[in-house]
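Listing S7. Sequence submitted for prediction.
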Amino acid sequence: MLAVLIVDDDHAFRAVLRALFEEGSGFDNCVEAANASEALDKTREITPNLAVVDFSIPETNGLYLARQLKAQEPALPIFMLTADYNVDIEKEALAVGVTAVFSKLNDFSTLIANARAVCGLD
């Protein structure tokens, strides 16, 4: 059973991502978190196969959360989403162990295709 952890403070945006992952993408369990502490707690509970993390989250930022997730689960693939994509954010994200960075403004079919590939579904 493949699980994805979706971390974003925007409930409506989490719902959109959840629907995309639940619609035949091969992920059986979609777990949502609105902030970093929730995300870390849920990671301990379910050990997700993939985390999709917003760059801008309450309490901290996505880069800090990515470091924490990697400390907890070193092999966990992490995708970061940002509304303000730029090369500097991507470089910093990759340096802390993020697998890939995606713009929130793009078509999410690429996100899902990459998620399937990273988790061995394609």
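Caption to Listing S7: primary sequence and predicted structure tokens for the chain studied. Residues 76-113 form one domain. The chain has five helices and seven strands.
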